[in-house]
Amino acid sequence: MKALVQAELLKLRTVRLPATLLLVTLALVALSVCATVLTAGRTGAPLGAHDPDLFRVALSSASAGTTMLLVLGILVLTQEFRFGTATPSFLVTPRRERVLVAKLLAITLVGALFAAVSVLFAAALSVGLLRLRGLDVVLEGPLTRTVLADLLVVVLYGPIGIAVGALVRNQVAAVVGALAYSFVVENLLVALLPDVGRWLPGGASAAVLQLGDVATTRGELLPPLGGALLLVAYAVVLSLVAARLTLRRDLA
Amino acid sequence: MTTLAFDGLTKRFGATTAVDGLTATVRDGRVTGFLGPNGAGKTTTLRMLLGLVTPTAGTATFDGRPYAALQRPLQEVGTLLEATGFHPGRTARDHLRVLAVAAGLPQGRADEVLRAVDLAPAAGKRVGQFSLGMRQRLGLAAALLGDPPVLVLDEPANGLDPQGIRWLRDTLRALAAEGRTVLVSSHVLPEVEQTADDVLVVHRGRLVRAGTVAELRSEGGTRVRTPDADRLVAALQQAGHAVRRDDGDLLVGAPAPVVGQVALQAGVVLHLLEEQGGGLEEVFLQLTADAVPVPAPVWGAA
Ligand SMILES: Nc1ncnc2c1ncn2[C@@H]1O[C@H](COP(=O)(O)OP(=O)(O)O)[C@@H](O)[C@H]1O
Ligand SMILES: [Mg+2]
Fold first, then answer.
1. Res B216: pLDDT
2. Is A6 contained in some domain?
3. What are phi and psi of B39, to 5 degrees?
């Protein structure tokens, strides 16, 4: 399995996609940090310029990469079918579920890297912008837990992407479907069926983010650990379904 | 040494029967040509052999084991399938390195096999910029990565220019000379004729002939001329012989005495009855010929 994970990591290192998505992730993080720090204290902004939570909320922008990890996971899997590299992959490793497991592990490592870079970047940018505005950097509140929450949600979304990709196999359908779900369908579901909301992936990640004590507006959520476990469960269950149903299909 | 065996291998895609009860053996240490016109079921058969397509019925095995049961597949069986299977943004060397790492082989093998297929100068190029011929070479390099005793190659000559085809022929000969078992498919007989020891001919998913190249060369079929062609064709087909119209004559996939006997029983007058010295090509044509009215497009557009 170690060799397979190494091979999956090498696959990721030898194409441009991960670097591109990392740049997009950092752009999203930057947008979110800017929005928090630059608006603080202005009318209508949620935080005052001297709010002790300002730095921590800006830092929590590091979770902006979750969607990119989801997309990366989906593409990692669906491109194997789109470009036909699934054929050599399954020729080397005929037990296809082993390839799936290696991909789940590899993307977890990549997610950790994305998350760590995002946290460092968010921290540096927040400090820079606060200084620029002549504001103090207040290191108060549950800083460690804020960082931990960001790392967790980012890391846990990659495997879900892999599983969704394995289930859907078609690249465009999977990416469009996942984005439409995250940005539209889930919000509708939450609005229409609030009790269901906390059990959905979005509710689960909101639950994890509670760790950081950063205000969320999703009503009753699971406890943070419950949210994290629920995200893991989504990845595992979807992967198991894919392994049984779609992964075995003919590569004709 | 490894023996490949197909036993009752069958694959249906909806209403299409791509492979229909194929039973055959590929002998070890020999080059076996797997021949048939486009759509005959060659690719589907090889993909079932490699565990990529699940058979509807039957088995395909290496020394009795299905591909999925091989311990180190790349070291046991080298594979070249059609020229897809490359990420266009990955370089040739990286493509091979990924496979080497997954197979537990040293990454240095990538450059070794690239040299073996004369692709070393393009090692750092993205595969998206490769010609079809270069992809075929890269595919062959991947097949050689684990230095396997068995090679399964699906239409390796596709996309190669005449020089490349000659190179392929020499390479296959050299690989066979090292004692490897080679199963190589083609819809163009001459590509395989000079390399293969044995041939398996498939048509419409069925095995229509298996034998050595030498055996098939000696069977050229029989040329018949008759004023009553339609009746003779019907009689010959009823007797289970392949028939093809050829310039006013009929070419029959049976020896002259057999054809004469059928003609006598059908009460048809013969003006000519002549066994062809015939090359393997003629045999291949006859074996895969469709029912008479439509001459089979045997080497139709690839
Ligand atoms: N995935 C598939 N779905 C439906 N039909 C298929 C599929 N793959 C092959 N076929 C059909 O099966 C037959 C055999 O195809 P193939 O094995 O590719 O033949 P060959 O390689 O000899 O040209 C053809 O009629 C082809 O159209
Ligand atoms: Mg084919």
1. 74
2. yes
3. 85, 5
This prediction's pTM: 0.84
Closest-lying ligand 1 atom to the alpha carbon of residue B42: 22
Ligand 1 atom with the shortest distance to the CA of B38? 23
Ligand 1 pocket, Cβ-based, cut-off 6 angstroms: A 252; B 13, 16, 18, 36, 38-44
Which has the closest alpha carbon to A214: A81, A95, A113, A64?
A64
- CA A101/CA A112 separation, integer angstroms: 17
Q: Given the structure tokens 């689960």, which residue do they identify?
A: A204
Render pLDDT for B262-297 as a digit per residue (tens, 0 to 9): 999 999 999 998 877 556 666 677 666 653 333 333
In a domain, A178, yes or no: no
Looking at chain B, which residue has its C-alpha nearest residue A2? B102
Predicted complex ipTM exceeds 0.85 = yes
Q: How many angstroms away from the CA of B283 is the closest CA of chain A?
A: 30
What three-state secondary structure class fits A161?
helix
Q: Chain A residues with CB inside 8 Å of B54's CB?
A: 248, 250
Query: How many Cα atoms sit within 13 Å of A243 on the Cβ side?
Result: 17
Q: How far is the CA of B46 from the centre of ligand 2 (A)?
A: 9
For residue B295, give both structure tokens.
């001459």
Comparing alpha-carbon positions, the chain B residue that sits nearest to A4 is B102
Query: Among the listed ranges A31-45, A79-93, B68-82, which one has the minimum average pLDDT value?
Result: A31-45
Total of domains in chain A: 1
Note whether residue A208 is domain-resident: yes
